[in-house]
Design brief:
Layout: H1 3-13, H2 15-74
Length: 75
């Protein structure tokens, strides 16, 4: 939008209505940006959770093997 369009809009509709349109556009812009950021963070979190789950499962297997080895040597 150029300045003449804004001036014509304010002149024909009045300042309160033009301000409402501007604020509506701003809210939509901010909401879209926030949604994109949240989606990116969610994807990153999913990847971290997958890596954490894999590490936890590997540690569980290692502890189970150690437990089995200790059990077999004490008997």
């Amino acid at each position: 939008m150029d300045m003449t369009t804004i001036v014509q809009l304010v002149g024909s509709l009045g300042f309160p209505i033009a301000a409402c349109f501007a604020m509506g556009y701003y809210v939509k812009y901010i909401t879209d940006k926030s949604t994109a950021t949240i989606n990116a963070l969610t994807e990153t979190h999913k990847e971290e959770q997958t890596a954490f789950t894999t590490a936890l499962n590997n540690n569980t297997l290692a502890i189970q093997r150690l437990s089995d080895m200790l059990s077999s040597k004490t008997q």
